[in-house]
Amino acid sequence: MKNKLILGLVAIMFVTVFASCDKVPQAEIDAANAALVEAQAAGAEMYIPQDYLLVKDSLNAILEKVEVQKSKFFKKFGECKEQLVGVTALATDLKAKTEVRKEEVKKELEVALEEVKVVMEENNKLLTKAPKGKEGKAALEQIKAELVVLETSIVEASNMLASGDFLAGLDKVKATKEKAASINEELKAAIAKVRR
Fold it and tell me: Are residues 56 and 120 both part of a single domain?
């Protein structure tokens, strides 16, 4: 009888110990990692870097909690599982936000390309009206060379648009547009100066 009582207590202890030891939420970890990799592949790291880093840091913090729980005798992964499910949802949402942001940047790039082409056409027209005196001839040659470089930049930006490299293309177009506008102002000032 005494042996049965001791054996029963030992059995209850084992059940308690093993029942309190949760299993590592590997399926949830894998799902969260996969969702984050998909978001990264969609370009989240480039197009919405703050959101990407927030989700990545959240996942890393949860993985640290999992490691802490692994080292404990009584493991409790319930909270970690819930957080991993939340991070998986955030990473999936991040992928969708990235696609939306990509489209916004693409449209912005298309508009900027059209605007810079208009400025370049105006620059070419103004170039024919610009004064061609002694000093003007050298300046016009320099402006022509700059316009050729800008045309090349426009072609490169168009190629970036076609290849899907929208952010780099947008940066290139903005710089080109700024330089083209500067040349435009310079030409207008030179023409106005001669007319006085």
Answer: no
